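[recover] target loaded
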């Protein structure tokens, strides 16, 4: 390359990404949220996202399903009041 220092060009070796999943992009986020967003993105990238909420919801839904299958009071097909109340509570978590 004419007019360019070849030794400098050799130094332009792409760095290995510190991210595990695919390519990265630059985004603009509010400065005040930067660290929180970056920390969450790193957790996602390392598959360390806290799924406690999803686990809790799944567990509670399984308990409700067991009550329906056992035809407990309030969970029978003709009396869904308790079921509706439990679902509302679960959604509000």
């Amino acid at each position: 390359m004419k007019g360019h220092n070849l030794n400098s060009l050799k130094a332009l070796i792409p760095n290995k990404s510190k991210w595990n999943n695919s390519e990265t992009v630059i985004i603009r986020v509010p400065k005040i949220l930067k660290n929180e967003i970056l920390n969450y993105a790193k957790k996602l990238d390392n598959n360390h996202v806290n799924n406690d909420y999803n686990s809790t919801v799944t567990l509670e839904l399984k308990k409700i399903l067991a009550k329906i299958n056992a035809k407990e009071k309030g969970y029978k097909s003709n009396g869904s009041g308790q079921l509706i109340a439990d679902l509302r509570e679960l959604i509000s978590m």
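[recover] notes: The mean pLDDT is 77.
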